[in-house]
Amino acid sequence: MIVLDAGTTWSKIIESNTENRMNNFSSNLVKCENGFNYYVIPSSNLKDIDFKFDKATGHMSKSMLNSDSDYENEVIALIEGFRKKINNDGLIFDMGSRDSKWALYKNGKFKDLDWNNSCSSSTGATIEMLLKFYSINAKDLEFNKEKYIITCGIFGLEKIMDDIAKGSDAKTAISKFIHGIAFNAWNFAKKPDKIYLSGGFCENECFIKSLSTYCEVIPMGRFLLCEGLF
Amino acid sequence: MNVKNVIGFWGYPHPELIKKYKEKYPNAVWVDFDIDYGYEKQDILPESYCAIIKNIINAAFHYRDELYVILAPIGKDKCDSGWFAYEILKDLGFNVEKSLFEENTYRRNVRISTSNLPLRQKIELITKDIYEPQNLDLTPCKAKFGFWGVPPNDLSLLELFPNETHVYGWSRCVEAMTPADIEFEMYVDKDVPTVFYSQSFCSKAQLAKYLADKYNGLYIDIDDVATNSTRAKIEAFLRLR
Asked: How many angstroms separate the CA atoms of B131 and B43, rounded?
């Protein structure tokens, strides 16, 4: 079995180790666990894959399947992954590179969801571009209790550049930007007490600490949607 | 030279006004200017503005030489943007007749909104019913889902819903011939999972968001056409609720 979560920037793949279809991507292997291999590859490299996946989610994945019936809605995949790992109520929040989405389970039943795609410039892809632009490693970012109020990613970028022009260092400015995104995420999820976090931001300590200012944060890793496809 | 044969309108012009023009021009073609026909875009309104009002302006120019008149609701039965569009079109030299349909005296029971027809067909019949009465033999159904709001600019959005979707909000008010009845507009069946739709830049977003929160529904606003993410959000809501 091999499944794909094709994000806008990064694609996550889980392959059972009885398969050998990802041999050409061994450098993208991030972990091996319980008989499964986990890969993260740039979505721009999906075009180099010449086989079809057994199941997939993400808008870019439909051409990677034999049948439309093997495709799963992203929110459904997220919820399935969450419910498999956490057999309890809670709010699962997936922070992607382009958009963010969450779903809430209460009393064992689906209660609410939302999917933000219009203010997408304030999510992962923007942070990745900023880190590249200023040659900063995400691990070097430190939580900053101050935040930018980011009504829009472009306005946020303007604040970063303005602060840097006034003498602030880029790391501090980007940390404030990330804090602003974390604050927006918490508001977008209707200010919960606890968030189960999915997506690449699980690996960003600065984001986790920023979000933890507002609620308890349980990182669930980058493969939750893939896990929901099994 | 083009021959005049078109009566354009938006919203729900007053029934007496419709009757008057039906009698005056019995062979006229009635065109609902709210709908997106893909006509040439006019650079009159701001770029970020209600897509429905943009459709109205674009359609008015498209039919400019063929129009007898444009019937223009400007009151609580439509919106302030309808009122401003009326003033702009009048100023641009169009023959526009304003309309107010704010009374509830024409009230009737709804049948299309609660029928088992596909949702898109329901909405299209409701809007057509404004100028061409739809005397159909309809079968009612029990609601599994609800769609609240105005007819969306992107009608294909409605194809995501199952047939057992009842219509609420302004569209239901139109069928009931009470387009300004705010209480009826705010009515929903509280146990029916409902998608509350608003056109972006429309003041009805206020109601849609409020009602979605109140009834644990799904609030969506869409500008021009629904993105993949918005469609997926609706699909997920319909599957999970």
From this structure: 29
Contact flag A113-B227 (C-beta cutoff 8 Å): no
Helices B51-62 and B80-91, packing angle to 10 deg: 30
- Domain map (residue ranges) of chain B: 6-99, 119-240
Q: Count interface pairs A-B at CB distance under 8 A.
A: 39
Q: How far apart are the first and last CA of chain B?
A: 56
A88, A165: one domain: yes
Inter-residue contact B145 to B80 (CB < 8 Å):
no
Whole-model pTM? Answer: 0.83
DSSP-derived secondary structure letter, B92? T
Identify the CATH number of the domain defined by range B6-99. 3.40.50.11890
- Closest approach of A148 to chain B, Cα-based (Å): 25
Type of residue found at B177: M
Give A117→chain B minimum CA distance, Å. Answer: 7
Phi-psi category of residue A96: left, alpha or beta, with phi > 0 → left and psi -120 to 50 → alpha? beta
ipTM: 0.72
Q: Is A51 on the interface with B (CB under 8 A)?
A: no
Dump pLDDT digits (tens) for B64-123. 999 999 999 999 999 999 999 999 999 999 999 999 999 999 999 999 999 999 999 999
Counted domains in chain A: 2
User: Which tokens hold the place of B120?
Assistant: 């898109």
* Of the residues A46, A72, A98, the one at which a domain ends: A72
Which residues on chain B are in Cβ contact (under 8 Å) with A76? 236, 239-240
Q: Residue A119 domain-assigned?
A: yes
Q: Give the residue from A72, A96, A128 where a domain finishes.
A: A72
User: How many Cβ atoms from other residues are within 10 Å of residue A119's Cβ?
Assistant: 16
Domain range enclosing A21: 2-72
Structural Rg of chain B based on CA atoms: 18
